[in-house]
C-alpha cells in the first residue's frame, strides 16, 4: 500500500493511544468494586427469590387466619342467637335442650378453631422471623453496594474521562492521514488482538520477532515503506 513515512509514524502513534484505551477499558471492566457489585447483585437476587417464597407462605397463612376468624365470628353469632332463643323459650324444655346443644356444638367447634389459630400464629411468627432475616440481608447488601459504588465512582470516572480525551486525540491524528490506511490498520489490529503495526528491525519482525530471510526479505523490502510480516500478517514499517 502507498504511504508516506510520516503517515506511518502517525499510525504508530495512533496505535500507542489505541493500546492505552484498550488497557483503560479493560481496567474499567475489571475494577474490583465493579466485580464485587456484580457478585452482590447475584447473591441479592437469590435472597429475593427466597423472600418471594416466604411472602407466598405468609399470604397462605394470612388466608388461613382469615378463614378461622370468619368462622369464629359466625359461631359467636350462633351462640348469641341460641342464648336469645333459650331466654325466650321459657318452660319449653325441648327448645331449651335443643338450643343448649347448638351452643355446646358451637363452643366445641370454637375450641378446635382456637387450637388451629395457635398453630397458624406459630407458623406466622416463624415466617416473620425468616422474613426479617432475609429483608435484613437485602438491606445490608444494598448498603454494601452503595459503599462500593461511592468507592469506585471516582476511579471509574477518571478512567472514562481518560478514554474520552484519548479517543478525541487519536481521532484527530487519524484525520490527518489517508483514511484507507487507517482502515487497513484497524482491520489488522482487530485480527491480531490490538497490535496491528510494527517495525521491521533489521531482518526481524518487531512484533512476532520472526526472522525474515532471503527472497521474503527482498520482497518485503520492495514493499517499503509499508509491508506485511509473512508470519504474523501484521503491518510492518520498512525503513
Ligand atoms: Zn510478525
Secondary structure tally: strands: 4
Biggest sheet, open or closed, and with what strands and sense?
4 strands, mixed
Which fold does the CATH topology of the domain at 13-177 refer to?
Helix Hairpins
Order of helix and strand elements from N to C terminus: HHHHEEHEE
Helix % is: over 70%
Low-confidence stretches: none
Rounded radius of gyration (Å)? 41 Å
Q: How far apart, in Å, are the first and last alpha carbons? A: 14 Å
CATH architecture of the domain at 13-177: Orthogonal Bundle
Number of helices: 5
Q: Per DSSP, what share of the residues sits in E-state strands of 2 or more residues?
A: 5-15%
Query: Which kinds of small molecule does this entry bind, naming each only once?
Result: zinc ion
Top-tier CATH class of the domain at 13-177: Mainly Alpha
Shape: rod-shaped
Please state the oligomeric state of the protein chains shown: single chain
Q: Find the structural class using helix and strand composition.
A: mainly alpha
- Spatial order of strands in the largest sheet: 2-1-4-3
Summed over residues and divided by their number, the pLDDT gives a mean of 95
Task: Give an overview of the whole structure.
- This protein has 239 residues and is mainly alpha-helical.
- It has a domain at 13-177: Helix Hairpins.
- Helices cover 78% and strands 5% of the residues.
- The chain has a 4-stranded mixed beta sheet.
- A hairpin with a 6-residue loop joins strand 3 (226-228) and strand 4 (235-237).
- Helix 1 runs antiparallel to helix 3.
- The radius of gyration is 41 Å and the shape is rod-shaped.
- The two termini are 14 Å apart.
- Bound molecules: zinc ion.
- Zinc ion binds next to loops.
Amino acid at each position: 500500500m502507498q504511504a508516506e513515512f510520516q503517515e506511518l509514524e502517525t499510525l504508530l502513534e495512533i496505535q500507542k493511544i489505541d493500546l492505552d484505551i484498550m488497557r483503560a477499558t479493560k481496567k474499567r471492566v475489571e475494577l474490583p468494586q465493579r466485580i464485587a457489585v456484580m457478585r452482590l447483585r447475584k447473591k441479592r437476587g437469590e435472597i429475593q427469590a427466597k423472600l418471594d417464597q416466604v411472602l407466598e407462605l405468609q399470604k397462605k397463612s394470612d388466608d388461613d387466619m382469615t378463614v378461622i376468624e370468619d368462622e369464629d365470628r359466625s359461631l359467636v353469632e350462633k351462640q348469641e342467637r341460641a342464648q336469645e332463643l333459650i331466654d325466650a323459650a321459657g318452660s319449653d324444655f325441648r327448645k331449651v335442650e335443643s338450643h343448649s346443644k347448638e351452643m355446646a356444638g358451637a363452643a366445641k367447634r370454637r375450641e378446635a378453631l382456637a387450637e388451629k389459630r395457635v398453630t397458624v400464629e406459630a407458623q406466622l411468627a416463624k415466617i416473620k422471623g425468616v422474613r426479617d432475616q432475609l429483608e435484613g440481608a437485602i438491606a445490608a447488601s444494598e448498603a454494601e453496594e452503595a459503599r462500593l459504588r461511592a468507592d469506585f465512582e471516582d476511579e471509574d470516572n477518571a478512567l472514562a474521562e481518560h478514554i474520552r480525551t484519548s479517543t478525541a486525540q487519536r481521532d484527530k491524528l487519524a484525520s490527518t492521514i489517508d483514511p484507507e490506511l487507517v482502515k487497513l490498520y484497524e482491520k489488522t489490529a482487530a485480527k491480531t488482538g490490538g497490535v496491528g503495526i510494527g517495525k521491521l528491525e533489521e531482518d526481524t519482525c518487531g512484533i512476532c520477532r520472526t526472522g525474515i530471510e532471503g527472497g521474503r526479505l527482498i520482497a518485503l523490502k520492495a514493499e517499503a515503506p509499508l509491508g506485511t510480516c509473512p508470519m504474523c500478517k501484521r503491518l510492518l514499517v520498512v525503513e
